[in-house]
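ARCHIVE CARD
Drawer: 12
Card no.: 0347
Subject: one protein chain, sequence and derived structure
Cross-reference: see card 0346
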Amino acid sequence: MDSEGFMHTFQDELKCSICMNYFIDPVTTDCGHSFCRPCLYLCWEEEQAPKSCPECRAVSEKPDLKTNIVLKRLASLARQARASHSSSSEEQLCGTHREKGLFCEADKTLLCGPCSEGPEHAAHSHSPIQWAAEERREMLLKRMDSLWKMTQEMQNNRNQETKKIRSLEDYVTLRKVMIKLQYQRMHLFLREEEQFHLEALEKEAKETGRDLKESVFRMTQQKETLKEMYSMLTELCRSPDTELLQDLENVLEMTELVQMQNPQPVNPELTCWPVTGMLDMLNNFRAENVLSQKMSIHSVRLSEDEASVVFEDDPQGASSEPPSEERFVAWGAQAFTSGRHYWEVDVTRSSNWILGVCKDIWTSDTDISVDSEDAFLLFSMKNDQYTLSTNSPPLIQYVQRPLGRVGVFLDYDNGTVSFYDVCKGSLIYSFLPSSFSSPLRPFLCLRSPG
């Protein structure tokens, strides 16, 4: 093989088998084949899992691939050599002096040596066109990396919104059952109010579901726009140097506008409608001072998931500030074995709390472990946002969080535990009827300002 044939073969090895152009940001899969990162990502985006090599179909175990630096440098040199010797290099000659072109960094224009030394450009910075183009390709690759990460994040957000739709539909179905059971305890004249409540829930659920579906649609559109912009940048990377340099600014402005138009996730929240006369009825079964025993604690957890600590003191003792909150639990000295009992708990000054009833409490020093199968609890947690949930089974409550007093109603004989927003006179959640066979004790755990 002569030197020219060898050089041609060598240059072919620096080309991506997908786009048939010199590599841009090459990566190597587990099987040893190399491709442009944009080509491989876009190829994998169209495939179903698992991700496989486009050439030999071997499954790639590590989708997060690193840039092949040596291959990237060789491809860059080959691209520059092609630009220097190709017939199209006439584009890089000065029309006046017929000399090889330079790129003026200040004016973003092509010049020759004599023109660059003229009074108009002498004070500017100049570089060979091939060098300038490679620098701009690196800029594009960084922007493409940002776009791709946003594309993947958008896909994850879209999946979460889709899950919310299914979860909300199931929750609405369950909530309809709870509302019907609640109204069955009321007098017959409340049937009209019950119908209004159900219709309002249905309407609000449809509106919230529509918002979630629109959110999914917007995220799908944004993902496609991001992919289109990513493909556009990929094509611009492959374009001739002069076209790349002339179009770069406009394309970068377009990508910045697209990246600023990110849709925000929807936080579904249903209205708790008041039930006429409900609190008056519950107060007929009011029990006073049910939470008579109290102790300070360090941590509280559910025993079936020891890794899920509800809240606890700083384990490292990293904060030098004095503690601003007191963490404590309280439970009833009396355990109920029959009848109906109603009590209220003030959670106005606490963001994190747990309340309800449990069969028993085990304490070890200042750590509390509650078996979730033996408890009927309502949780309020504040991390990035407030979360209201129940256990047995774990269930997010898509209703507004109570800000004042929470009522707890234990109907032991009928096997139900219900929670109420006292300020609104509305139902928060009611566990479906079950059979109680053990004594149930009131329980409260919260953070309160010290």
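Annotation on reverse: The chain has three domains: 1-85, 155-260, 278-308+324-449. The mean pLDDT is 80.
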